[in-house]
Fold:
Amino acid sequence: MDCYTANWNPLGDSAFYRKYELYSMDWDLKEELRDCLVAAAPYGGPIALLRNPWRKEKAASVRPVLDIYSASGMPLASLLWKSGPVVSLGWSAEEELLCVQEDGAVLVYGLHGDFRRHFSMGNEVLQNRVLDARIFHTEFGSGVAILTGAHRFTLSANVGDLKLRRMPEVPGLQSAPSCWTALCQDRVAHILLAVGPDLYLLDHAACSAVTPPGLAPGVSSFLQMAVSFTYRHLALFTDTGYIWMGTASLKEKLCEFNCNIRAPPKQMVWCSRPRSKERAVVVAWERRLMVVGDASESIQFVLDEDSYLVPELDGVRIFSRSTHEFLHEVPVASEEIFKIASMAPGALLLEAQKEYEKESQKADEYLREIQELGQLTQAVQQCIEAAGHEHQPDMQKSLLRAASFGKCFLDRFPPDSFVHMCQDLRVLNAVRDYHIGIPLTYSQYKQLTIQVLLDRLVLRRLYPLAIQICEYLRLPEVQGVSRILAHWACYKVQQKDVSDEDVARAINQKLGDTPGVSYSDIAARAYGCGRTELAIKLLEYEPRSGEQVPLLLKMKRSKLALSKAIESGDTDLVFTVLLHLKNELNRGDFFMTLRNQPMALSLYRQFCKHQELETLKDLYNQDDNHQELGSFHIRASYAAEERIEGRVAALQTAADAFYKAKNEFAAKATEDQMRLLRLQRRLEDELGGQFLDLSLHDTVTTLILGGHNKRAEQLARDFRIPDKRLWWLKLTALADLEDWEELEKFSKSKKSPIGYLPFVEICMKQHNKYEAKKYASRVGPEQKVKALLLVGDVAQAADVAIEHRNEAELSLVLSHCTGATDGATADKIQRARAQAQKK
Structure:
């Protein structure tokens, strides 16, 4: 135990700090870190170095080189810098490298040196140049803060949604501040700067002077300031050698430490963890590293090489030319188990397990001691928790074996925490490997989440490892394997040294019908890389036409998009393509394309019927479809024309089209309609009233109702209305007028071609039984019974039915008999039926 704690250093009475090696760096640095612009991403992220010739006049003619390494020193990218002088480097939360140039332009590069985009920090920055810059992180994203040559600040809190804010001017500021940093308070980004002995806080509205509470007297300048990883705490290094530590709001002082060194530090960062016992600040000079907190003594380390500090959620990474180390506060569980002479339950359980492996009876003694205190569950939990905070796999296994040993003596210990810790450590050990180079701690891993870790593996193109992790953790395919395979495919299409056919085949063989994978997204990436033919081949594997068609339209393969839309059977999709084609092609080519696609042509005609009638006419003309053209002109004559002359002219055009279509019936009917329109106009002129747009029958009926019987008869002769139809029209009209005398004259004018039963029915409909009886006697024998029943003469109807000996008529009469008044008639019918059956 005491050997294991050899690298533990106490800070005060409550906490220990330890520093252990993550990697032995094998990168080939040609220059010292001090001669480079350095940026290291948090959460075990990559390291960017820009060898900076702008700092050395003798080498000003040499082009700088931008190198990107993993945290283990494995090279990821290297490129010659061909743009302007760079002032600062920084990593975004998405692990994109932000390069802030002197002219205010910010160039964004990917992890592998691929240029992504660029943006400007505004004209004022361009005119005044950039003196200094900071990349900071907020809950909204990654931000950039700029100090210009005019000693003004400009910042954007989120480079993904760029909104520049020009901060207020600091009164009397004539030179660059001695130090400054970006703060995030209440979801708003601020600038804190030091000018001599004064501190100023800039927000979007004002510049406020602030004073740290409890600051030691005699301070004439602040040389360095540092904000904690969570932006909750602030440290200030003064020219008197004091380090003030407090809240970032500058409302509360935590502690103050005199380091007795007045030289400005090269770097100062916070070193703390969630629920830390002793918050500390790490200060680095050229060859000295000091850890200070709320204690009278500090921890000091000698730096053999030029080093760089990277603040993390739960500690500080320290890398140099040869090593990469991690400095952090020893977690409580580890401290309880491993500190010298510890009697914590976890420490006893670990000893018990070791003695058990030696087959020693001491194992039973340790175990009994834990059980007597009722602390076995706590001991298991301590070992599990401590295993998560250990970096060496051997120590992880030792602690987990102890936890497993203790679980055997517990009846109801939930296994979830043990299983999950084993899984998490296996994942962490895999990504910590030298060739992967992501030295995450357990706390960082939990904060980052497995989904973000997978994204970072994909970003590094470590697809096999990412898939193995997904399968090991049994993640849902849509969140795991499918998503990673889609990223792999998007990377595959960028390999321009492989033919389109080979790439498409390889992607299909690997992906198949994997759920959650969209071939259209992969095809879109291929098209974005300038590989249109590959994109088309990939779209052949996309089962959803709704995803195929929009991309085909974007690629200007409209005819293929139309074919795919038609195959899908989705009319909305077809209409989308048709409207796109209409805007893209000239009229002739568009119509020719439609002729080759009957379904599309039919749908477009339906569209034109409601939206573009003139286009519909052009379609019919181009196809020589005279039948539909005639129908079109007929509809147009009523929809568009109000003048009778225009309507007749349109109908004449329709009739000519019908003749060309050899549809004589439609042509004759159209001509008859023209004659009727002219006649109706003449009737309106001569008789008044409303005749226009009435049908032929309604015109005749209107004339009869108006008492113009002769004109009605003449109209019937002119248009060859059959006698039966004319009699019906006149009968109905006279009944509606209740002109019974004229109706009787009309019935006697000649033999009725429709019989006299309609007269009975019409009279009864008008509730005139008296008139109906006049016509009932004239009804023919075959309809006599029905007529008599209509006028209510049941007895006579029965006599006629008996005389006819018609069973159907007898049943009809019997159904009209009521028990009270027609009993005798019913008996009479029954007797007649009985006699008929005897015969």
In short: Residues 664-687 form the longest helix (24 residues). The CA atoms of residues 608 and 614 lie 8 Å apart. The radius of gyration is 49 Å.
